[in-house]
Amino acid sequence: xxxxxxxxxxFTVFGIGFTYWYFLMKKDEVVSAKNEIDVVVQGxxxxxxIAIPQGKTTKINFIRKDKNSCLEEIxxxxxxxxxxxxxxxxxxxxxxxxxxxxxxxxxxxxxFHGKFIVQ
Amino acid sequence: MAEIKKNFSIKGMHCASCVRIxxxxxKKVPGVSDAVVNLATQxxxxxxxxxxxxxxxxxxxxxxxxxxxxxxxxxxxxxIEKRKELNQLKIKVLMSLALGGLILWGSFPGLIDxxxxxxxxxxxQLILAIPVQFYAGFTFYQATIPALKHRTANMDTLVVIGTTxxxxxxxxxxxxxxxxxxxxxxxxxxxxxxxxxxxxxxLGRYLEAKAKAGTTSAIKKLxxxxxxxxxxxxxxxxxxxxxxxxxxxxLIRVRPGEKIPVDGEIVEGESSIDESMVTGESIxxxxxxxxxxxxxTINKTGTFVYKASKVGEETMLAQIIKLVRDAQGSKAPxxxxxxxxxxxxxxxxxxxxxxxxxxxxxxxxxxxxxxxLLNTIAxxxxxxxxxxxxATPTAIMVGTGQGAEKGxxxxxxxxxxxxxxxxxxxxxxxxxxxQGKPEVVDIIQLHNFNQDEILKIAASVEKGxxxxxxEAIVKKAESENINxxxxxxxxxxxxxxxxxxxxxxxxxxxxxxxMDAEKIVIExxxxxxxxxxxxEGKTVMMLSLANNLIGxxxxxxxxxxxxxxxxxxLIKRGVEVVMISxxxxxxxxxxxxxxxxxxxxxxxxxxxxxxxVRKIQAEGKRVAMVGxxxxxxxxxxxxxxxxxMGTGTDVAIESADITLVNKDLISVASAIDLSKKTMRTIxxxxxxxxxxxxxxxxVAMGILYPNFGILLNPIFASGAMALSSISVVSNSLLLRKIx
Lengths: 119, 739
Prior knowledge:
The structure holds two protein chains of two kinds.
Chain A: H1 3-24, E1 30-32, E2 36-41, E3 45-46, E4 49-52, E5 58-64, E6 73-76, E7 81-84, E8 90-95, E9 101-107, E10 113-118
Parallel strand pairs in A: 1-4, 2-5, 4-10
Antiparallel strand pairs in A: 2-3, 5-8, 6-7, 6-9, 9-10
Chain B: E1 3-11, H1 16-28, E2 32-38, E3 43-49, H2 55-63, E4 68-71, H3 75-107, H4 117-120, H5 122-136, H6 138-149, H7 155-175, H8 177-182, H9 191-215, H10 217-225, E5 229-234, E6 237-242, E7 251-254, E8 263-269, E9 271-274, H11 276-279, E10 285-287, E11 292-293, E12 298-299, E13 304-310, H12 316-329, H13 335-363, H14 368-382, H15 385-405, E14 408-410, H16 413-419, E15 424-428, H17 429-433, E16 439-445, H18 451-462, H19 468-479, E17 488-493, E18 497-502, E19 505-510, H20 512-517, H21 524-535, E20 539-545, E21 548-556, H22 563-572, E22 576-580, H23 585-595, E23 599-601, H24 609-618, E24 623-627, H25 633-638, E25 641-645, E26 658-660, H26 666-701, H27 705-708, H28 714-738
Parallel strand pairs in B: 15-22, 15-24, 22-23, 24-25, 25-26
Antiparallel strand pairs in B: 1-3, 1-4, 2-3, 5-6, 5-7, 7-13, 8-11, 8-13, 9-10, 9-12, 14-26, 16-21, 17-18, 18-19, 19-20, 20-21
Helix pairs in contact in B: 3-5, 3-9, 5-7, 5-9, 6-7, 7-9, 7-14, 9-28, 10-12, 10-15, 12-15, 13-14, 13-15, 14-26, 14-28, 15-26, 15-28, 16-26, 18-19, 21-23, 22-26, 26-28
């Protein structure tokens, strides 16, 4: 086997490993929201995993800075919320979860994901 | 000078005093003539002269008091913005396809011979490709870079990697052809690949956005129904006012052909009203004094005055829109799999792309680098996670929208999905299969009391009761001009009847269970009489005075026009129909016979209905319960799908999964049909979306090359990918035609 082919195999193995590690092994930082929290929508949601209190109303302010049409809607299906996020504008969604648990949310195309953890 | 009226949202209000403070602050701004703030909606309606003050002035004034003013976003504004975004996209599509086409002309085998010399120049191709890659394709980079920062990847990531690889290779070939040549590869750039891919994917996105707009057409249609003005009578003067200014209690005049502005009750006049746009009921409904009218419906013939009872967000139309919106935001359980897959999909595709590169470079044919690069790009581009993401929600949107147009309001995607599996439909009898307005049809004397006296005693004790049978008796007494007597110690025994005192005598009025409980003797001849009446489907109430049975009152309820057809439609679909009723077995059976219902659950007390539903569920059947949503709320909630018949102008019935505002019993079968069709569409969409990726990704990797010599050109891959998401949305839109 020629050196370039050996290099290609190393490159491939490294690429696959890196992709797995980078995208599938990440640990999310949980950010706690106190009454209100801003979520920047740009290439995903930042913060992505948000802890909110049970039985209280928390305001989640989504601000979309990403032109990608994929992110133009926010869907929080457990709360039956599907809202259009105009570019560079704050859209406030109020959540008052009654039960503890994890509530996922996503973009309208179900490509970008996040979750609320009710504690 | 131009006075305008605008609505704003106010942030930071929590109490009634906030209303006063904010109103005062707004009115203080020079140029503002009026400001009305609503605490419930957190909205302000401000009349101001926009040449004297601006929105900024209003916001500033509010800010000093600690509140925030934001312009309210209307659906129209959203529409305009979306259209603007769509137009920009269109320009990018046209630009990239035009430039990409030129590059393709100058480089694609077969076409190249017909192209002018200048297009064959690599540097010209580079200049043509730059705006496509970095202007039209900018949105892909814009989405990818922050996504990568957050360690997430999506479709844009794939497009960026694929086109950037093609572009970078081509730039290298353009500037260093001799190096490529020394590797034994013909120095040919692939600017056309990147440019056409970007063009086609943007085109796909453009068409998809246009098609997706169709999935919300039901909401748009509902939104457009609302009236803009109302002819209000204030201080004996009629005036046209904007719909937002109509208040509860306002008297409104509606003339023939006009739209009824808000919900209310007719106080004067009568008319025939077309309610089809809101309830789906196709035949105009005659309405007169004390009847309810629904906003957004059309007055056909007469002129009438009515009193507004619900305005703004409270109207039936607003509630319907909210319900449909909520349902469209909910998630169907079937989507879970797609959700699961989509969170791993893109990283897996990237890994497959690496694998493809390694495989072709090490064991592929010469020139290995070129094959490896082109196939890697094809894998990245062919993968279409969007189709999977769109498969379920678009069908749910069209399905729930279709339902709303027909007067079938579905609470959420889960209910729509479950309705598809319904095997048994339980109908509550009174008020659901029947009109719920029973009439007294027979009065039988058993003692020395004449018919009028029997009716008098019965009506006197029933006066305080809210039961529908009581209403029938009192109504009958009123029509016979009978004066009622004073009663004492009124006691309603749920499911049995009534106990009260008249002139110190104990009066009992109710069914046999009540008589048995109170140990009243029923002679066999009377029993025969009762059974005869019950066999005719009548409900018999027994009246006893001082422990003696003195008379029978038979009450009958008429079947709804759509009852027979509604039941037949279900039986035809192989659904078991069950009738549940508080009536005794004979009268319940008589009604069931008329409708062709074989299974009857009679003498079921209101609180037992829930249990009966659970019993049927225990037989392993999925049960839908159809009721009025008020008396049978627990049974509706217990059923797999609770279906409530709309009453009045309330549409959001808590315990119901589906509300039939059209009050038509055939809609129960229609709802099941709609659910089946929607589920079929979803399954087809998911099958297509998964199948597409499962089949074409290996093809792009070159699985067919060893045996058939087939490889996927990245340009075709981008075409297939664009088509794939459009086809899913279009398939969902087909539901509009077949549902």
